[in-house]
Design brief:
145 residues; Spore-associated protein; 40% strand; signal; globular; alpha+beta
Length: 145
């Protein structure tokens, strides 16, 4: 009886976790967010967004963090350690702005990440812009409250 219940529990858990395996490895996402927090500062405790840019084989992540005590957002573009150019300088960039505001950007040849860039945006939407080899991306409104 216990073996049957264990098998059912494992099957149910596999069904719940299967969709996660197709997106980002949780430890990889955790590592990326941890690096972003190191770059932005420990007060940036709220993860607003962290996603793989979706370019097959390139492994770049944008991470948007928020500091609730001062109202600033912080953005970084991070190379995943699976990236073939990890620890090699390649052109990459990240930008952030509030609706109607100016872009705050950082771009250049970096080994691990571009940024951090900051914008004061309490109770406002922010927009991200990222650049990496072979791809450029602009977000829709994010972090709107």
């Amino acid at each position: 009886m216990h073996r049957k219940l264990a098998a059912v529990a494992v099957s149910a858990l596999a069904m719940v976790l299967a969709p996660l395996a197709t997106t980002a490895d949780a430890s990889t996402k955790s590592d990326v967010v941890s690096l972003a927090r190191s770059a932005c500062g420990s007060a940036y405790s709220t993860t607003v967004a962290a996603a793989d840019q979706g370019v097959p084989g390139s492994y770049y992540w944008y991470v948007l963090l928020y500091n609730p005590s001062n109202g600033y957002n912080c953005a970084t573009l991070i190379k995943d350690s699976k990236n073939g150019d990890y620890n090699k300088a390649t052109y990459m960039g990240v930008g952030i702005r509030v609706a109607g505001g100016s872009w705050h950007e950082d771009a250049g040849n970096y080994t691990k990440y571009a940024g951090p860039v900051y914008v004061h945006a309490p109770n406002q939407c922010v927009y991200l812009h990222t650049q990496q080899p072979g791809d450029e991306w602009w977000s829709n409104a994010m972090a709107c409250s």
